[in-house]
Amino acid sequence: MQDNLYNLAFERSILSSIVFEPQQFDELSVALREDDFYLPAHQDIFKVMVKLLQKDHPIDEEFIKKELIKIKKFDEQVMLEILSANPISNTKAYVEEIKDKSLKRHLLTLTTEIKRVTVEEELSSAEVIDIVEKKLYEITQDNQTSDFKDSPKMTFDTMAYIKEMKERGNNILVGVDTGYHELNKMTTGFGKGDLVIIAARPAMGKTSFILNTVNSLIMQGKGVAFFSLEMPAEQLMLRLLSIQTSIPLQKLRVGDMNDDQWSSLNGAIERMNDAKLYVDDHGSININQLRSKLRKLKNKHPEIEIAVIDYLQIMSGVGTQDRHLQVSEMSRGLKMLARELNMPIVALSQLNRGLESRNDKRPMLSDIRESGSIEQDADIILFVYRDDVYLYKEEKEREKAAKADGKEFISEYVEKEEEDAEIIIGKQRNGPTGHVKLVFQKKLTRFVDAQPFAKGVETVYENVDTRSANINVSNDMVSMPAL
Fold first, then answer.
1. Taking the model in full, what pTM does it have?
2. For residue 291, how far is the Cα from the chain centroid?
3. Over residues 11-29, mean pLDDT
4. In the prediction, which pLDDT does 226 show?
5. Model confidence over 438-451: pLDDT tens digits?
6. Residue 226 to residue 232: CA distance in whole angstroms
7. Other beta carbons within 10 Å of 234
8. How far is CA 264 from CA 221, 242, 244, 245, in A?
9. Which domains, and CATH codes, for the chain?
10. pLDDT value at position 472?
């Protein structure tokens, strides 16, 4: 292999520095990986060092030698070369050089893999591209891992996770903020690698529901990728502006606002100019295209913490197979992509109309269209339900029947500015099922928590609403006044 693909002197210096200054290894064990070293003997020594760190044993010559002898990998000549190398105090430049050469070796290996899958495998061009993009993303994200994790590695990582949770104290959030306090309590947030399905019948407000999550995240300075297959990006922006300003959506759409509302809108526009929101509003996209776009976007903008697809059944299928098989491929593909990118992917989904023939129209798992694969692949399934949607529909049907019979119709339905809403947790792989009460503000097409919650000594609302329209903005934070 060409000399520009490795530097054994640099590798020796790094390993020597660890032996003579073991306190550096906490940082170096995160920055470097076993296969970043070119020489197999160097890989073995680094692997043993990691093992000693996990066991909280000294990382010195004797312990390293003892572990290497156990696995029959001790090479006295290599060890002498490392011990005779000059240890370095500033390891950053050496680590960067080793990582750079490691990346080049991985890219060289990838070229061989591209040739193999292109020439030898009976795969379509789309499948070849997907394989290559996935491997390239793994390389650039330094996700080269072994096939199996052993018990010491798993216990070490698990204890690190538990300690991190302990340091957080009483923080209910483990994953990505849902934007709703009570839902956060039930789910601890959307977890990394989770596939989250948000399902509802038309007009229930599933897009409005997830946009509140999106707004909460971008106001915290976090990145969001949004695939809008149903509506253009400008309509999504109008809804987000309505959420932030408490200006009714209809007024925004026609520009019918007073001076205060215009001022509030200008402030929201300035905030959105700095938002890390990326929207793809092409009406037709398949799972291969989505994977490719999201990998590239995540690679370019690593601050993206969540991806949203609105909605699953509009996605195009690949090939000519039956629709339920296509949806199965989509849901499985999204789950695997969530794990690959280590972030939650939220997919909105339609429900079968059959539920409307039941007396209790609250959704169940079996109501999801093509539910078998979606139900299996999802980590969390949430249903958006508003009883007033059906009450209004029934009222209109009674009015129509009365007019057809020539009878006078007296309406018993009272339209509300704010309606009760439920988020039903139909499935949660790592938590309880149940339901969360919300309020739907019709003019703003916005869901908010049903009850205020305590935060410190003040009582505030998790979401901006008509009761809290003034937002104080600084470069560091977005805060709301106490209510």
1. 0.66
2. 14
3. 85
4. 94
5. 999 988 888 999 87
6. 11
7. 9
8. 20, 10, 9, 6
9. 3-154 (1.10.860.10), 171-385+416-479 (3.40.50.300)
10. 34
Helical (H) or strand (E) element with 114:
helix 92-119
DSSP helix/strand/coil, 52: helix
Mapping DSSP onto H, E and C, the string for 123-179 reads CCHHHHHHHHHHHHHHHHCCCCCCCCCCHHHHHHHHHHHHHHHHHCCCCCCCCECCC
Confidence grade of residue 395 (pLDDT, cut at 50, 70, 90): confident
Going by C-alpha positions, the residue among 415, 438, 416, 414 that lies closest to residue 425 is 438
Q: How far apart are CA 417 and CA 466, in angstroms?
A: 11
Tokens 């006295």 label which residue? 76
DSSP secondary structure string for all residues of 377-426? H-SEEEEEE-HHHHHHHHHHHHHHHHHHTT----------SEEEEEEEEE
Q: Which residue has the higher pLDDT, 215 or 391?
A: 215
Of the candidates 423, 422, 420, 417, the residue with the CA atom closest to the CA atom of residue 466: 417
Q: What is the pLDDT of residues 353-389, one digit of tens each?
A: 888 888 888 898 888 876 668 888 899 999 999 988 8
* Residue 103 near residue 138 (C-beta atoms within 8 A): no
DSSP label at 274? T
| Mean pLDDT of the 231-260 span | 90
Got the DSSP string for 12-48?
HHHHHHHHH-GGGHHHHHHH--GGGSSSHHHHHHHHH
Tokens linked to 255: 């520009």
